From TrEMBL:
It comes from Fodinibius salsisoli. PROSITE patterns: PROKAR_LIPOPROTEIN. Residues 1-23 form the signal peptide. Keywords: Signal. This is Lipoprotein.
């Protein structure tokens, strides 16, 4: 009797594993990067502009599209990425990155690493440039 229960349990487990692997097998690449953040609006929270320090820019392919992987640090643990906007003018690419922090919060006073994928440029636009100006500072990618 115990043997039949073990066989039934083994068959059920194998079937469940088979179903789960079929349900999750897609052809999309889901690469994650360390400390990846999303854009966040402050909403009704009282806030002040946050400081963003950029360390590196890298052109990447996310499977569906190309983008720029922006890696850097926030000035403290309460800073959030608010917006990333691009501008192409006179054959130069520039990004404006803005951040915010809750002005009433008590935060760690240490640099906090982040990464963000900016995917609003076409592959053709990305391949046309090897440098980008971010908040007035020029970076190569």
């Amino acid at each position: 009797m115990l043997t039949q229960h073990l066989k039934l349990l083994a068959v059920t487990f194998a079937l469940a594993c088979s179903i789960c692997s079929c349900a999750s097998s897609d052809n999309k690449q889901h690469t994650t990067y360390p400390n990846q953040v999303q854009l966040t609006e402050p909403g009704a929270i009282p806030y002040t502009p946050g400081k963003v320090y950029i360390d590196a820019i890298k052109q990447i392919s996310t499977g569906a599209s190309d983008g720029l992987l922006i890696s850097g640090s926030f000035s403290d643990g309460c800073t959030h990425l608010q917006a990333v906007l691009h501008n192409i003018e006179d054959d130069s690419l520039s990004l404006k990155i803005s951040a915010w922090r809750n002005k009433e919060a008590v935060c760690t006073q240490a640099l906090v690493p982040f990464s963000f994928i900016y995917d609003k440029l076409s592959s053709q636009q990305l391949n046309s440039y090897s440098q980008v100006s971010i908040n007035g500072q020029t970076y190569s990618f």
